[in-house]
Specification:
two-stranded antiparallel ribbon; globular; binds iron/sulfur cluster; TIM Barrel; 43% helix; alpha/beta
């Protein structure tokens, strides 16, 4: 829900699954702010907001939205750094003012969760914070170090397990391609193994894109990070999915950066079907694969089968012809489409 006026404060981002949620800003920006791939809060200082300030925002939101909100998302990157008493007051304040709310969710860092006493997390959970989104990104220490995630694999495991032990629904974000070409296999294997150990309720894919101006772009410029092509990315995801035997979770591909949006299902039951999606993409003849990737990155289609819908193929053929006439390699065009620079 976007604010119709500036009577309250809201932060810049929320997960795709919180598109309909009321956004409540509990903290500003990110306390870590060093992740090499992340363009969101760079140059902005982290601060916590007082419970009184947030409760005043809730009063203003109640004036605007009445009791319509059904889900709420606490911003920004790590509201779990707030004092327990403050967070409990805020969550209880939401429940009081918006009685029809069925779910309250927040981002959190494993680093924070791994250090917070379980009893405090249980108090926050009992007050009514239901779900945490954690940026696992990778379960591989070499990748976490490369992208300066600021947590180790051990802390990622501990943070995830502690969230589960406190009773939260746990959603873990994974970034296919984050290790680049050099660490692709280790990234896939170690990330799958981490998720088997954590057993989150949701795994959400968010494909790595190199945003201009980020430290990851600098790593790429120095040759220390070589991004995966779309095909290499699909191979890595296939390897990752194969490693997920033993996890009971819901896999979601709900981010616009993902190529294969149909990678959604319940594990372990759907593992075979999801692997088959990857295989189907990888088995496409070269010309069809390029057309699918372009149509997908241009936002024209979401699923493999849609390439054969009336008009799609002809429209993509025109794009391919234009690229050929201009001497542009489709893979380069695809990388630029992913980074938002084309
Ligand atoms: S990815 Fe998350 S933790 Fe890392 S800098 Fe961005 S907001 Fe902060």
């Amino acid at each position: 829900m976007s604010p119709p006026h500036a009577a309250f404060e809201q932060g810049p981002i929320r997960p795709p699954s919180e598109a309909q949620s009321l956004l409540v800003r509990v903290s500003r920006n990110c306390p870590w702010n060093h992740c090499a791939f992340c363009p969101v809060y760079k140059g902005r200082r982290f601060s916590l907001r007082s419970a009184d300030e947030v409760l005043a925002d809730l009063d203003a939101m109640r004036e605007v939205y009445g009791d319509r909100p059904r889900t709420v998302f606490l911003q920004d990157a790590n509201p779990l750094l707030s004092r327990t008493d403050d967070l409990v007051r805020v969550v209880a304040g939401i429940r009081e003012r918006f009685p029809r709310v069925t779910r309250i969710t927040a981002y959190a860092r494993s680093h924070t969760l791994a250090r917070r006493p379980l009893a405090e997390l249980q108090r926050i959970r009992a007050a009514g914070l239901d779900r945490l989104h954690l940026g696992l990104e990778s379960g591989c220490d070499a990748v976490l170090t490369l992208v300066r995630k600021g947590v180790t694999r051990a802390q990622q495991l501990e943070g995830g397990r502690r969230a589960k032990a406190a009773g939260f629904e746990l959603s873990e974000y994974v970034m296919p391609g984050l290790g680049g070409r050099a660490l692709s296999a280790a990234h896939a294997d170690d990330t799958a193994a981490a998720l088997v150990a954590i057993q989150p309720d949701f795994v959400r894919l968010r494909t790595t894109a190199v945003h201009p101006g980020t430290p990851l772009a600098a790593l790429q410029a120095r040759g220390e990070f070589v991004p995966l092509t779309e095909v290499e990315g699909a191979r890595e995801i296939r390897r990752f999915l194969a490693g997920l035997a033993g996890v009971t979770t819901r896999l979601e591909s709900d981010h616009v950066l993902n190529l294969l949006m149909e990678l959604r299902g319940d594990l372990p039951a759907d593992q075979g079907r999801l692997l088959a999606v990857c295989d189907r993409f990888l088995a496409l003849p070269d010309h069809d694969r390029v057309r699918f990737m372009l149509a997908r990155r241009l936002g024209w289609i979401e699923r493999l089968g849609q390439l054969d819908e009336p008009g799609v193929r002809a429209a993509v053929d025109r794009v391919v012809r234009t690229l050929q006439e201009r001497g542009i390699d489709p893979e380069e065009a695809l990388a630029e489409l992913r980074a938002g620079t084309l």
